[in-house]
Design brief:
Number of strands: 0
Order of helices and strands: HHHHHH
Protein name: Hemerythrin-like domain-containing protein
Distance between the termini: 65 Å
Structural class: mainly alpha
Largest sheet: none
Radius of gyration: 23 Å
Number of domains: 2
Shape: globular
Helix content: over 70%
Bound molecules: fe (ii) ion
Length: 186
């Protein structure tokens, strides 16, 4: 689930990069909300459990992650207080994206694999994370469809199939146009 969140926020960042100013505000809000929920459930549930399960050396990874969350939250606060008209707005989102990219890589390549090596019941932890995520989303008034899901892929998919349908229709039209043209010649 945490990895799904990572993919979903990456998709939103990509959408933000291509978006014009009128869409940037809504996208930035969604990015900030998603990251707020995600960082909070990790801080409340994942990181404390990880510290318990890890030895001192591996604990350092968790402290690093917490410090990175702190920096991300400062950026999130600035973005939430700003508007796309501010010259700093887009650069703030870009820096947040770079931070998150780095942080996600460390979690997925180091922290999560190290957790798998411990005695920690990851299934149980996973369901606790999912439960807390739903609770926080409800508190923050985030709708289910605004929930961390790869929306971009879905909409691209429907665009593609709509385009295919249009193409197919155009194809059959031109075929019948061709056949009536050839009938007319005969
Ligand atoms: Fe994290
Ligand atoms: Fe994460």
């Amino acid at each position: 689930m945490l990895k799904q969140d990572h993919r979903a926020v990456e998709a939103l960042f990509a959408e933000f990069e291509d978006a014009d100013e009128s869409e940037q505000s809504e996208l930035a809000t969604r990015i900030c909300q998603m990251l707020t929920v995600h960082t909070q459930i990790e801080e409340e549930l994942l990181y404390p459990r990880a510290k318990e399960a890890f030895d001192e050396e591996d604990d350092e990874m968790v402290y690093e992650a917490e410090i990175e969350h702190g920096s991300a939250k400062e950026l999130i606060a600035k973005i939430e207080a700003g508007t796309p008209e501010d010259p700093e707005f887009k650069p703030l989102v870009t820096v947040l994206m770079e931070y998150v990219k780095h942080h996600v890589k460390e979690e997925e390549k180091e922290l999560f694999p190290a957790l798998k090596e411990t005695e920690l019941d990851l299934k149980e932890l996973g369901s606790q994370l999912a439960q807390r995520k739903m609770q926080l989303m409800e508190q923050m008034g985030i709708e289910a469809e605004e929930a961390p899901e790869p929306r971009r892929k879905r909409s691209t998919g429907s665009r593609t199939s709509a385009a295919k349908r249009r193409q197919a229709r155009a194809g059959s039209r031109s075929k019948s146009a061709r056949s009536s043209a050839s009938r007319a010649r005969h």
